[in-house]
Design brief:
This protein is mainly alpha-helical. The protein has a domain of 189 residues. Helices cover 76% and strands 0% of the residues. It contains eleven helices and no strands. Helix 6 packs antiparallel against helix 10. The chain starts with 6 loop residues before the first helix and ends with a helix.
């Protein structure tokens, strides 16, 4: 199988193309509900692609390569080497949330919100066209689950009990993949759908700042390790800066929201 040196970028780029099908399908329907669904899809992709990309950069920063083979090799040997642990879980959580939003899976399926948009982007489609849309969506879910397993959970890494090692590698990879597919189905049956403003706020005001701050923290730890600095001091200082920056950002967002609500209340009372 091919192992391109920019394998991660290729996988992310291919998964991002899915939004074009949704956007063009809604636009070409000639109906307002599919058009609103396609507009939501494009805005949602832009909002969460940045956070997803920054969480991938954290993995690349630790592995030192964009090759999926090199990333898997860097995680071999022990479960403590898995990037979900090496990056302290935060990029993994951000990637999972952003991937769920990019896949248009619940609770982020605003592009096909039945209560608001009838059927969203696929309202005017039936038969094989409808089937092709959802076949692509479910295949994209499988692909994204495989990317998560490769980047954060060691890929095919796992204990070899007996027999050929490659069989156990396929088995462990398949089991991890099925676990994420079960999780996507579980989320669909468990969580209510977000409002659109909540969807945008989560992407722009929380996930992107958190992923950027955590990436800078990992970079500072790597620089301190190469320069011979105390890891405890670098970690404590980085967490302190991250906490203070987050608190300032949260305060600024709250002030902006309170001012907007005050302006809206003033306009209502004036009317």
């Amino acid at each position: 199988m091919a192992d391109p040196p920019v394998g991660v970028l290729f996988l992310i780029a291919m998964s991002s193309i899915a939004v074009y099908g949704v956007m063009l399908a809604g636009w070409s329907s000639g109906s307002k509900y599919p058009l609103l669904g396609s507009v939501r899809a494009s805005a949602q992709m832009v909002s969460y692609e940045a956070a997803l990309g920054l969480s991938v950069v954290a993995v690349v920063l630790l592995s030192g390569s964009l090759s999926t083979h090199d990333i898997v090799v860097a995680q071999a040997g022990s479960i403590l080497n898995w990037n979900v642990i090496a990056t302290a879980f935060v990029p993994f959580a951000i990637f999972c949330v952003a991937a769920t939003a990019e896949l248009n899976r619940p609770p982020f399926d605003l592009v096909e919100a039945e209560q608001e948009l009838v059927g969203g982007f696929h309202t005017e489609y039936s038969s094989i066209r409808f089937g092709m849309f959802f076949l692509a969506e479910f295949m994209n879910t499988i692909t994204m689950s495989a990317i998560i397993v490769t980047l954060f959970l060691g890929g095919p890494s796992g204990p070899v009990l007996f027999g050929p090692a490659f069989i156990w590698g396929i088995l462990w990879f398949t089991l991890k993949l099925l676990a994420f597919l079960f999780t996507f189905v579980w989320l669909r049956a468990t969580l209510p759908r977000y409002r659109y403003d909540q969807l945008m706020d989560l992407g722009w005001k929380r996930l992107i700042p958190l992923s950027l701050g955590w990436l800078l923290l990992i970079g500072a730890i790597n620089v301190g390790r190469d320069a011979g600095w105390s890891r405890a001091v670098v970690l404590a200082g980085g967490l302190a800066v991250l906490f203070i920056s987050g608190a300032l950002l949260f305060a600024a967002v709250r002030v902006a929201e309170s001012r907007r609500h005050a302006d809206e209340f003033g306009e209502v009372t004036a009317v």
